[in-house]
Amino acid sequence: MKTEKAVAMAPPSNDQDRAKRAAAERAIAAYLRDGMKIGLGSGTTSHLFVRALGARVRAGLSVLGVPTSIPTRDLARELGIALADLNDVDELDLTIDGADEVDPKGDMIKGGGGCHLWEKMVANASKRMVVLVDDSKRVETLGRFPLPVEVVRFGWMQTRRQLRLLFAEMGYADTAVGLRGGDAKPFVTDSGHYILDCRLERIPESRVLAPRVKDIPGVVEHGLFIGVADAMVVGHRDGTADIVAF
Fold this sequence. Notes:
Blueprint: H1 4-9, H2 15-31, E1 37-40, H3 44-58, E2 64-67, H4 70-78, E3 94-98, E4 101-102, E5 108-109, H5 116-124, E6 129-134, E7 147-151, H6 156-169, E8 176-179, E9 194-199, H7 206-214, E10 219-222, E11 224-225, E12 231-235, E13 241-245
Parallel strand pairs: 1-2, 1-3, 3-6, 6-12
Antiparallel strand pairs: 4-5, 5-11, 7-9, 7-10, 8-9, 12-13
Helix pairs in contact: 2-3
């Protein structure tokens, strides 16, 4: 079993991890203040942030975290970070989370880890949202990363059919829409839903597509985060990080 110190203090294993850790440390220095209520994101970059935050908590920083997934909750507990359920707090001061892609406007695709429903709910409950990325996550146009769409399990094949019809109507020809995990062992989210990964390749009109996807019966939430981020902290492989405001 890993000790708390091992989880918190493991050195970066490669240049990308170094960039992610640099972004996490810069975000803590720039945004966190004693007494804050903060949303704790999910995924590898966010978990590096949670580990760095745990070290600051042990040094005396007082924060209350609201996790966006069960793995984030478990990690934060192991590190001694005080936690609350989203139902038990009012407005959060800040959410810090990662992204699978982010464009120059700050619009994102999230959900590679299957946590985008909780992530969007927590970000929406926050005064500000700051996204942590390394250089590889910055794109000119969203879509290279498959768009995750969380759907209820009842009638999911019909929901997939409706998604394909919408994509065809909007000019995305022959879009592959796959059930994450496959038919034999589908991935199930923390809320008990399935995820359909939609390989659109390029989404030039993400702000038009987002509400159309959400309107399909059976769709719970999608991974397009439009106008959510207030700033981005970009980590670089040399261990530096920059802040970009939107």
